[in-house]
From TrEMBL:
Signal peptide boundaries: none
Keywords tagged on the record: DNA-binding, Transcription, Transcription regulation
PROSITE patterns on file: HTH_LYSR
Name this polypeptide is given: LysR family transcriptional regulator
CDD domains, per the entry: PBP2_LTTR_substrate
Source superkingdom: Bacteria
Matches recorded under Pfam families: HTH_1, LysR_substrate
Family: Belongs to the LysR transcriptional regulatory family.
HTH lysR-type domain sequence ranges: 2-59
Length: 293
């Protein structure tokens, strides 16, 4: 019967596109990966890859097996994480990474209750973009991330929605766009866009590239300052733009479609190996529905 090593070789080959790339990711010899897949094909009594071309292509049988193999690998990893956590005790320090676009003031209101229940736990807070936080969670520091929802969440992370944050399009009062009503998105393409992306140059799934002229930053407060200085238009959370709006430095973009802004869901992510511990269950319970709008 097939083994978890065979399934890893099969899925990794699909993900990376070749047997050699799969071998590099798995830190194994290519011959080992190829043999795992051959043995899996024997066990399944089916050919899983067409090997005639330069790169292996899934057969119909391979396509049918793939989602089941991925599900089993994910469940196997969850079993490992659960087993490792059986004798774990409450950590002495918990690091929480938070996207700067999410209002920390609301999150901070829950800290008093957590501190009262776990007085010996030290807390550390980090700021980073949502995509950078996902990358950080892989190393298990931080153990908890609070991010804007992304389409692709790694299988080793557990997550749930905390609510949402309202965004709108903003520009400096002195910017040419502030003096006209944009009838559609085409009007925005004529002016520089200010956009969030991660430190490894990934763009969030809800941050649309609209203008051909884009400046990037990895947090919303830099975008805010760039917008105030008149360098372009950007999408900002209401709480980030609020003070600049009141001071008259920033204005909400005049749009014929008034509700061109949108809400972004906020998720809390925790590494599977720790999410079952009582302290993290308490933290999840304290934060649930905190950002309902």
């Amino acid at each position: 019967m097939f083994s978890i090593e065979q399934l890893h070789a099969f899925v990794t080959t699909v993900e990376t596109g070749s047997f050699s790339a799969a071998a590099r990711r798995l830190n194994k010899a290519q011959s080992v990966v190829s043999q795992h897949i051959i043995n899996l094909e024997i066990d399944c009594n089916a050919t899983l890859f067409e090997r005639a071309g330069r790169y292996p292509q899934l057969t119909d049988a391979g396509k049918k097996l793939l989602p089941q193999a991925m599900a089993l690998i994910n469940q196997h990893q969850r079993l490992i994480n659960s087993a490792l956590a059986l004798n774990d005790q409450t950590p002495r320090e918990i690091t929480i990474a938070l996207d700067e676009g999410i209002p920390f003031k609301i999150i901070a209101n829950t800290i008093t209750e957590l501190r009262e229940k776990y007085p010996n736990v030290s807390l550390e807070f980090l700021n980073a973009s949502s995509l950078d936080i996902i990358d950080m969670l892989k190393s298990e520091k931080p153990l908890t991330g609070i991010i804007f929802s992304e389409l692709n969440i790694p299988s080793y992370l557990d997550y749930e929605c905390l609510g949402a944050v309202k965004f709108d399009l903003y520009v400096a009062k002195s910017h040419p766009l502030a003096g006209q009503i944009c009838k559609n998105m085409d009007g925005l393409r004529l002016h520089r866009q200010l956009l969030i992306r991660s430190r490894n140059t990934q763009t969030s799934s809800f941050q649309l590239k609209i203008s051909p002229d884009i400046w990037y930053a990895d947090n919303y407060f830099i975008l805010l300052e760039l917008a105030i200085q008149g360098h372009g238009w950007c999408l900002l959370p209401h709480h980030v733009a609020e003070n600049a709006i009141h001071s008259g430095e920033l204005v909400k973009l005049p749009l014929e479609f008034e509700e061109m802004g949108w809400t972004a869901n906020v998720d809390m992510l925790q590494h599977q190996r720790h999410s079952g511990q009582e302290v993290f269950k308490v933290l999840r319970n304290l934060l649930r529905s905190l950002l309902s709008i």
